[in-house]
Request: fold
Amino acid sequence: MIIRTVALAGLLSMGVGAAIYTPPAAARGYVEVTVAPPALRVEEPVVREGCEWAPGYYRWDGHDYVWVGGSCLAARPHYHYVGATWVQAGTKWRYHEGHWDH
Reply:
């Protein structure tokens, strides 16, 4: 009975901690930096049946851009994948995550 109570208390505290922790970028819903991203790398898309290619992109790690290589995602009927992009907004660059669209 004590083990069950301790386990339940541990799970509850992890759930509460996860619910109240919000990384700074996620709190805003976007990442915004003043340094322009590098030019995208040229990749050879992987073509496989039942897959859709998600192109590579640069992510901001808080100090610099880091390349994230493209990958093959399981295709979703009636959707297409829109890759991640950086869009200039005045003097800043704003990151938009890749997503599935109709």
In short: The two ends are 51 Å apart (CA to CA). The first helix runs from residue 2 to 20. The chain has two helices and nine strands.
